[in-house]
Amino acid sequence: MVITNFLERNAQLWADDTALVELNPEKWETDNAGWKEAELVMSDPFADAYRREMTWKEFDDEANRIANLLINKGYGKDDKIAILMMNSLEWLPIYFGILKAGCLAVPLNFRYASDEIGYCLDLADIALLFFGAEFIERLKPYAAADGSANIVVGMRSIPTLFTGVCDCPNFSVPADAEIAKYPSKKPNLGYELNPEDNAAIYFSSGTTGFPKAILHAHRSLTMACKAEQAHHAQTREDVFLCIPPLYHTGAKMHWFGSLLSGSKGVILKGAKPSWIIDAAANERASIVWLLVPWAQDILDAIDRGDIDLAGKDLSRWRLMHIGAQPVPPSLIKRWKQKFPHHAYDTNYGLSESIGPGCVHLGTENVHKVGAIGKAGYLWETKIVDERRETVTRGEVGELAVRGDGVMKEYYKNPEATAEILTGDGWLITGDMAREDDDGFIFLVDRKKDVIITGGENLYPVQIEDFLRGNDAIKDVAVIGLPDDRLGEIAAAIIELKPGAKCTEDDIQAFCADLPRYKRPRKIIFAPVPRNPTGKIEKPKLREIYAGGSVVEKQVSN
Question: pLDDT tens digits for 97-113?
């Protein structure tokens, strides 16, 4: 079975039930008095500009039209079709239409600059690009000189379909008009898709340079569906609130549990705390997936009085699900104080393992907050040393995972593939971890982020978790900076909560309970940059602060 079979099943069994909802509170706030007044006019046709929905049959019909368009245009097996769009109601039908045509879906990060877009289009051998209005300026450098409907990258010409609502640029063709020409019947490929067929290329987060292209088979996508539904027990009554970008495996693969269960998914365009709470209340969400900064922002907004939970019907919200980075235990303690009825869960994953799920905590293990969990449904895990041999339980090593969700390869990069894939199917993640006596896995840090100071290994995540226990700190990142005597020293970049008062001396006093060698030797009060999936952009911080430009006082021994 391949993942498109689930969509076709849902369209047959629950044709008129709502599959997807799109909420656009930012547009509402721009056009009207504010999101908080949305309930007053939600029944008004004018509200369609801010809330749109799609049934399972409409979803499948649109995916079929897109597939028939692609087939009619000559695209087929192993052709790569890119998606460069913000989250929208159209995003997932385009994705599934690409898969139904036997092509590979290639989602692109909406934060890519023009040169990164060109790099990815070229690396993945893109044959066609769907793009939104937000990206016109970034694509203009690649437009054909004669204004014809294609994008020129390297030596290739790439046709494009424009999905925006403004005027279509002269280098593209309007997608809606093209799609409408084709029938909504299931496309005839002339063959059956199978689990080992190539399905998608995802790009690594690119935190160490230009991203790698990660090739997945259809088996990876169906594996993600099964693992997500097994972990969170979605039924047809659930409503999943999806906020992260759909180009990333983290958001889409969590939604795959809704696909498998035939339940409603709500795409929220924006992550303002009040928008999240109002969307959860208005749409009767039962599962909300958050990043650490969003959860912190919600709690801070409640504490400041910016969000009043009185009158908000959040009774169906059963699961607060968080991931994409280490989760501070102090955050979950605060969350449970505000929302004691919420179950808590976290997943670990990476794009090379089709996103979240290869390690899973489980709602029954809230006493292990801080751990990422144990091997997920249908997954295996182990922790290995430099020789890739299993370490003794309790020792720090590199986490390895194995299962049907592991990528096939880094596309066109056999050297990088060989570095992380073993001959017997294990994926070496690059994350340092340890396993406790109960078999729960705790992340220690990224292998490349380990700081070696005076011969001692420092794991920044451990120091960051400690510092997040300070009530004045909103976010923190610990990086290594060059030092003539010790090789490297630990520097803490600290972002304070709005209005918080805290000095370097206060931080050093707070760190008195840390072993001396783990205490940050440099304190920098500054914003902590994160990418769209919530990961701290440590290479950016090292670029900013490692080079003699930092003037903050170095802490003495």
Answer: 999 999 999 999 888 88
Instruction: Produce one character per residue of 67-77: b if its CB has 16 or more CB atoms within 10 Å, e if not.
Output: bbbbbebebbe
Whether residue 371 sits in one domain with residue 511 = no
pTM beyond 0.90: the answer is no
| Strands ordered across the beta sheet of 473-483 | 473-483, 487-496, 522-525
Query: Are 364 and 482 members of one domain?
Result: no
Provide the mean pLDDT of the chain. Answer: 88
* CA distance linking residue 343 with residue 365, whole number of Å: 10
User: How far apart, in whole angstroms, are the C-alpha atoms of residue 354 and residue 254?
Assistant: 11
314's tokens: 């959040």
- Check: CB of residue 302 under 8 Å from CB of residue 336: no
CB 401 within 8 A of CB 425: no
Q: What is the number of alpha carbons within 13 Å of residue 388 lying toward its C-beta?
A: 14
Q: Distance between CA atoms of 430 and 102, rounded to whole angstroms?
A: 32
What token pair was written down for 431?
A: 């994350």
3-class secondary structure, 156: strand
pLDDT at 272 over 50: yes
Q: Which of 346, 347, 107 is nearest to 246 (CA)?
A: 107
d(CA 482, CA 498): 31
Residue 484 has what pLDDT? 66
Q: Which two tokens stand for residue 373?
A: 């969990």
Instruction: Find the domain containing 353 and state its range.
Output: 1-377
Q: In whole angstroms, give the CA distance from residue 28 to residue 53.
A: 16
Give Cβ neighbours of residue 146 (< 8 Å, ≥ 6 apart): none
H-type alpha helices, 291-328 = 292-304
Q: What one-letter code names the amino acid at 263?
A: S
φ/ψ bin of 530: left (φ > 0), alpha (ψ from -120 to 50), beta (otherwise): beta
- Assess if residue 155 is contained within a domain: yes
Q: What is the pLDDT of residue 551?
A: 31
The answer to whether position 492 is within a domain reads yes
Distance between CA atoms of 434 and 444, rounded to whole angstroms? Answer: 7
**Could you tell me if 59 and 193 lie in one domain?**
yes
d(CA 55, CA 20) in angstroms, rounded, equals 7
Q: Are residues 132 and 34 in the same domain?
A: yes
Which helix (H) or strand (E) segment holds residue 386: the answer is none
Indicate the pairing of strand 198-203 with strand 239-242.
Answer: unpaired
Find out whether 168 and 162 touch, Cβ atoms under 8 Å: yes
CA separation for the pair 35, 166 (Å, rounded):
24
Residues 158, 16 share a domain: yes
